[in-house]
Amino acid sequence: MKAILLLLFVIAIAGSPAAAQTGVAKTAAKAVALRTDVTVKDGLVRLGDIFRNSGSKAKITIAYAPAPGRQAVLDASWLSETADRHGLDWRPQSHLDQVVVRRASIPLARDAIIRKLSEMVRRRGQKGNFRIELSYRIQNIHLPIASRGNFAIRDLRVDERSGRFSGLLTAPGVNPPVRLNIYGRVQKLVAVPVLTRRIRKGMVIRDADIAVRKIVDTGLPQYALLERTDIVGMAARYSLRPGITIRRGDVRPPILVRRGELVTMEIRTPYILVTARGRALDSGARGDTIRLRNTQSKKKLEAKVIGPGRVSVSVSTAARLAAR
């Protein structure tokens, strides 16, 4: 009888084997565990972000989050101290235990900043074509999730002579506030004709060989030709590569008469036109005065180039030749 009572007492205390296993499972399910990779949306890291099953303590703030788009690493020592401080039953498995905390963000493209700056500069009276050049330091900007990608630029100052500007980029309604100094330059642009293909020495430039490109006015070479009409119909003095700004010295009028070739000499008066054949002793473009030799009389004379293979001899020059 005593043995039976003892057996019932033991069962009452320990419970059945199935019940014991269920209790162990529940205990294991509630065990505090480490989250190794964490992403937070605001500026604070809470206990529940780092430790699973932290219960009512999950919303306790334990650290500041990294800046938007950045990450921080919490090592085993820091994690152990934090668990002890808040009464969590957790110990690191080794000194290699760690948690990587990332801050969620909205990337802000440079183009979006440039568009807003352009609008502000235009409203301030900037005329003509221009472009905004941001400092190379303005890279990989991330806004907090709470900003929804909205930003503003305050205290914009532009130096009218140099075009340099400075301002403050902010994200309204975000705590902690976002404040980023921005710098750059407003660059005036001018439309200039450039070559669309390689032009070899002596080739005549056609209208189809020209395209218009906008470049920074401070980048213009000296004596740059800014009008298509100053270039079309001219010949290259040497080989010119595509995309370059053409200078006055890069081109010349095309050669219409070449040294050694036979040309037609014209003597024109209001009443008569006399022609003869001559051989060019010089090369020349339209309007150039070159030397020739009459193929019949062998006399030398000067004439003005008026077209391909054609020169004009003045009446006074013809009279002098006749008098010799």
* Number of DSSP strand runs: 23
Largest sheet: 5 strands, antiparallel
Number of domains: 5
Low-pLDDT ranges: 1-28
What gap, in angstroms, lies between the N and C termini? Answer: 166 Å
The secondary-structure element order is HHEEEHEEEHEEHEEEEEEEEEEEEEEEH
Number of helices: 6
Mean pLDDT across all amino acids: 86
Report Rg: 44 Å
The structure class reads alpha+beta
In quaternary terms, these chains amount to: single chain
Overall form = rod-shaped
Percent of residues in helices comes to: 10-25%
In terms of DSSP E residues, the strand content is: 35-45%
What report would you give on this structure?
By secondary structure, the protein is of the alpha+beta class. The protein has 5 domains: 1-27; 31-103, eubacterium ventriosum atcc fold (Sandwich), CATH 2.60.480; 108-188, no CATH class; 190-252, Type Iii Antifreeze Protein Isoform Hplc 12 (Alpha-Beta Complex), CATH 3.90.1210; 255-323, Roll (SH3 type barrels). 19% of the residues lie in helices and 36% in strands. The chain is built from 6 helices and 23 strands. It has helices spanning 2-14, 17-29, 47-50, 76-85, 110-123, 315-323; strands at residues 33-34, 37-40, 44-46, 51-52, 61-64, 71-75, 98-103, 105-108, 130-134, 141-144, 152-158, 164-170, 179-195, 210-216, 235-236, 251-252, 255-257, 262-268, 273-280, 284-285, 289-294, 300-307, 310-312. The strands form 8 sheets. Strands 9, 11, 12, 13 and 14 form a 5-stranded antiparallel sheet that branches. A 5-stranded mixed barrel has the order 18-19-21-22-23. A 3-stranded mixed sheet has the order 2-7-6. A hairpin with a 4-residue loop joins strand 18 (262-268) and strand 19 (273-280). The longest helix has 14 residues, at 110-123. The chain is rod-shaped. The N and C termini lie far apart (166 Å). Residues 1-28 have low confidence and may be disordered.
